[in-house]
Write a structure and sequence with these properties.
Shape: globular
Bound molecules: adenosine monophosphate
Radius of gyration: 24 Å
Structural class: alpha/beta
Strand order of the largest sheet: 3-4-2-5-6-1-7
EC number: 3.6.4.13
Largest sheet: 7 strands, parallel
Distance between the termini: 44 Å
Protein name: DEAD-box ATP-dependent RNA helicase RhpA
Number of domains: 2
Order of helices and strands: HHEHEHEHEHEHHEHEEHEHEHEEHEHE
Strand content: 5-15%
Number of helices: 14
CATH topology of the largest domain: Rossmann fold
Enzyme class: hydrolase
CATH architecture of the largest domain: 3-Layer(aba) Sandwich
GO molecular function: ATP binding; ATP hydrolysis activity; nucleic acid binding; RNA helicase activity
Pfam family, one: Helicase_C
Amino acid sequence: MSFASLGLIDPLLRNVQNLNYQTPTPVQAKAIPAVLSGKDVMAAAQTGTGKTAGFALPLLQRLVQYGPAVSSNRVRVLVLVPTRELAEQLLQSFIAYGKGLDLRFLAAYGGVSLNPQMMKLRKGVDVLVATPGRLLDLNRQNAVQFDQVQTLVLDEADRMLDLGFARELNAVFAALPAQRQTLLFSATFTDDIRGMAANILRSPINISVSPPNATASKIKQWVVTVDKKNKPDLFMHLVAENHWDHALVFVKTRNGVDYLAAMLDDAGYAVDTIHGDKPQPARLRALERFKKGEVQMLVATDVAARGLDIDDLPLVINVDLPIVAQDYVHRIGRTGRAGASGVAVSLVCADEAPQLAAIEALIRQTLPREEEPGFEAEHRVPQTSATGQIVKKPKKPKKPKVLQVATGAAQVPSKNTRSKPGSKPAAGPRKPTGKLAGGRGKRQP
Ligand code: AMP
């Protein structure tokens, strides 16, 4: 199958060719004709499947072929996204796919000043990619009106609901023209998403390219069990042992992000961070530097988890498991994109057994477990089953035996030597040796 056989016009075919896309991905093969037909679409597609071109190419074509030119403070295609990063990324995709088409594009999101966005909206834009809160702000200021909206796209709809945008979304739906095309893309289909879809889609064409909630099959995934206090040391050990020098690293808290980033920095890696408290320009800069390879390790909280388009990322390391199982799917969706193979490693401690069980139930597989010699968990991680059960109750952790050696020093770290965010980690049962000392010369100039 070729892009030409899907009915795309020449300028779009040229742009696709220039991007070196040879054949449509499965979601593109299904979505492009569906969107071109003007019908509503509900698509179960993860990031990495090529879904962006699946809706952007046919929408660009419809913008060129139909409808009056956009008027001032109006928008013809409205794309709603959960995060600022995704908004920027989709804007870049629309610009690339729509090169030479004489259409206007804009991304509008919070955390940056309203004024430049208001100025750009004055002339009207053909495609506005926006986060829900900022869109409503702009609408309240009369900077954008919705009467010319011909298509609404909800990208990563599940994530928008997870982030608590339900109220904003309903306010936007209520303000849009009833006569419109609506496209809903989501990696997972919870009852909430289905409920929303039932409210806003009319006789949609359903597209599913991989079973909902399945993780990309080419991603090699496994779990390394470890005690919580030894996670930072194990992480650094695995990174050094395996020569992992380009990875997206997920940590639960902002403090944890800063802590690991400092360890990596000390060990000589070029590292940057993304988390919610970081100003937007700094977050985008970190992402850009990581994409370009100027940064080897990008340490992030879930803010970065969805929809970021990072090509050829071989490795995702979950130092902490996400609280919400779906986020695991989104996190590891960064690897194994468009057919490439990837690796996703998760460091799991006993406390995280329920999260692990929920993830395994969601992806319908039991993740293989490993232990790293020298980092064996004292607090065993209970067995889980792929139905989301914890098979055996965790044994009550035994009181660690304190073996007195000749010097009288204890071999097991005591409570008050355990690592805290912001302090150096306590020594694990075996301190990783050698490779990290003095760094590995990996820092980029
Ligand atoms: P997406 O799922 O839309 O974020 O796309 C994932 C990645 O696949 C992006 O880097 C796209 O540039 C790339 N891509 C999309 N469609 C194709 C295609 N037909 N052939 C090769 N790469 C593609």
